[in-house]
Automatic annotation (TrEMBL):
Belongs to the bacterial ribosomal protein bL17 family. Pfam families: Ribosomal_L17 (PF01196). The keyword Ribonucleoprotein applies. Residues 180-195 have a biased composition (Acidic residues). It comes from the Eukaryota. PANTHER family: LARGE RIBOSOMAL SUBUNIT PROTEIN BL17M, RIBOSOMAL PROTEIN L17. Residues 179-211 are annotated as: Disordered. Keywords: Ribonucleoprotein, Ribosomal protein. One of its GO terms (biological process) is translation. This is Ribosomal protein L17.
Amino acid sequence: MAGGEVRYRHLSRKSSARVALLRGLVTQLVQYEHIQTTYAKAKEAQRMAEKLITLAKKNNEPARRSAHGMLYMPLLLMPKLFGEIRNRYLTREGGYTRVLRTEPKKSFDQAESAILEFVDGARDSRFMMTAKAVARDRILGRLSTPLTQKNVKKVTLFRSEAEFQRMVERFIALEKEREMDDDIDDEDENQVQDGEDVRFNTEDDVPESSEAVAIAEKEKAAAKRMGPSIVPEAVRKAARWFGGNKPAA
């Protein structure tokens, strides 16, 4: 109907090109579980990804054929889709993916960028950011904010508490390692600053070898003998000319 509400984003493409684009994004999402694109493309690909997970949860022959037609690499990704990913979301009723806004990926057009990822996946951004916030609070010895506590409940709703604690401990270890590296760099810088005024006399510290002295004397004598003959005659004449002594014709 003319003038009606747009039911989906056309993405400035024909229908066939739009479907091909979304199939490519969903294929990459199943393969990597975390992709970055524009916000409009992420929202449209999210709709197709949600349908794909619903088909995987049905796990019947018509659903497999439909999922096979959505993916560009079905032979590679169908086992993962109907295995690992399906088992992850068996108890979840919906909301299998998440779209997070990010800074514009391309500076020249400032297009809205976003991350499309699987919830509770191996690269779940909210899970890792929440664990990093809790680790920072423990290092500083302070209580977590109400927002952080709320996010902890969200990310551990379908994932184990032990897995979250392992991620927190990992961030704590990384933070301590980074602080140790910073301390070592500061010590090295202080040592360099303290030693700036130190002067070393290499002639006094390193004893001269008699063999080295003899070789140096031989080279010096050979250079003196080669001195007159090593300069071409034309160069010597030019030197006398510019020195005020005109060479004889």
